[in-house]
């Protein structure tokens, strides 16, 4: 969610009954512009909140001119003081994926080695040393997992230039109401996987400048997204059943869209048995 339009965006995505208190909104409204100035980001977004047992992590991300470039992620425990998170690596994501249970709300909290699959850890750390997994590392990995799995944008919101960079589409005026209700009108904003496996015949009808990402219609398991009309049918809201707490909103025929996460940072592993 863009920092400049945060109050209005939170209202549009509040149908699930989660959100921020007026005090937190006011503090974020003051701290996020300062964050953008201090770190010289091109743009700052409020990513969401991961609720721990003893506290919550409020998360933001800083963007550069190329929207497909790696993002800078930051966390705060009070919405005032922000700390920069290290970039996510495959090893961090794989190791943190072995951890179960709630976050504690303490970045320095260390998880026991017994909580991690020993064989998995040995394959990731060949030096034989027992890895120390701090909650800050798990936080980085969880954000990366959520963004990769359910971070989405409307079709046409971004364009890929001939040089390979990804920019916002200035001609994007929003999806029509009919298109906005289709999962095929939304893309995963990450490196495509299914697109590379399509045949030339399937790619014939695609526009390479805007259809360079994977759409949601083939997500596994089928049924992992819900599409609803809210605010009297003026807002289309998508919610992930795989990462409970992820809410995406789009106002048809406008440029208003975004997503936010309010949850415990735990993946819904029971989803295949619930569908």
Write the layout of secondary structure elements.
Layout: H1 6-12, H2 22-39, E1 43-51, E2 56-63, E3 72-76, E4 83-84, H3 90-96, E5 110-111, H4 118-124, E6 133-134, H5 135-150, E7 152-154, E8 158-160, E9 166-168, H6 177-180, E10 186-188, H7 200-203, E11 225-230, E12 235-240, E13 246-250, E14 257-263, H8 271-274
Parallel strand pairs: 1-14
Antiparallel strand pairs: 1-2, 2-3, 3-4, 5-6, 7-10, 8-9, 11-12, 12-13, 13-14
Helix pairs in contact: 3-5
Commentary on this structure:
With 275 residues, the protein is α+β, with helices and mostly antiparallel strands. It has helices at residues 6-12, 22-39, 90-96, 118-124, 135-150, 177-180, 200-203, 271-274; strands at residues 43-51, 56-63, 72-76, 83-84, 110-111, 133-134, 152-154, 158-160, 166-168, 186-188, 225-230, 235-240, 246-250, 257-263. The strands form four sheets. The protein has an eight-stranded mixed beta sheet, sandwiched between helices.
List its salient traits.
275 residues; alpha+beta; eight-stranded mixed sheet; 23% strand; globular
Number of beta-strand segments:
14
User: Which consecutive residue ranges, at least 5 long each, have pLDDT under 50?
Assistant: none
Query: Average pLDDT, to the nearest integer?
Result: 86
What gap, in angstroms, lies between the N and C termini?
30 Å
Largest sheet: 8 strands, mixed
Q: What's the SSE pattern?
A: HHEEEEHEHEHEEEHEHEEEEH
Strand content: 15-25%
Largest sheet, spatial ordering of strands: 4-3-2-1-14-13-12-11
Number of helices: 8
Helix/sheet category = alpha+beta
Radius of gyration: 19 Å
Fraction of helical residues: 10-25%
The general outline is globular
């Amino acid at each position: 969610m863009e920092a400049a339009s945060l109050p209005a965006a939170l209202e549009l995505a509040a149908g699930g009954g989660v959100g921020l208190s007026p005090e937190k909104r006011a503090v974020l409204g003051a701290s996020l512009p300062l964050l953008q100035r201090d770190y010289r980001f091109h743009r700052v977004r409020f990513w969401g909140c991961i609720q721990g047992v003893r506290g919550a992590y409020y998360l933001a991300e800083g963007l550069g001119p190329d929207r497909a470039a790696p993002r800078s992620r930051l966390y705060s425990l009070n919405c005032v003081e922000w700390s920069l998170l290290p970039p996510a690596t495959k090893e961090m994501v794989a190791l943190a994926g072995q951890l179960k249970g709630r976050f504690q709300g303490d970045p320095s909290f260390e998880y026991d080695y017994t909580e991690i699959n020993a064989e998995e850890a040995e394959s990731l750390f060949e030096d034989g040393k027992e890895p120390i997994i701090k909650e800050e590392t798990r936080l980085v990995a969880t954000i990366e997992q959520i963004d990769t799995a359910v971070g989405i944008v409307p079709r046409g919101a971004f364009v890929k230039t001939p040089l390979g960079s990804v920019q916002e589409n200035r001609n994007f005026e929003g999806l029509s109401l009919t298109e906005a209700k289709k999962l095929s009108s939304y893309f995963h904003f990450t490196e495509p996987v299914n697109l590379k496996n399509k045949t030339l015949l399937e790619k014939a009808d695609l526009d390479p400048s805007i259809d360079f990402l994977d759409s949601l219609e083939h997500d596994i398991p089928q049924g992992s997204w819900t599409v609803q009309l809210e605010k009297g049918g003026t807002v289309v809201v998508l919610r992930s059943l795989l990462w409970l707490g992820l809410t995406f909103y789009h106002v048809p025929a406008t440029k208003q869209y975004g997503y936010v996460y309010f949850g415990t940072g735990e993946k819904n592993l029971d989803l295949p048995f619930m569908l």
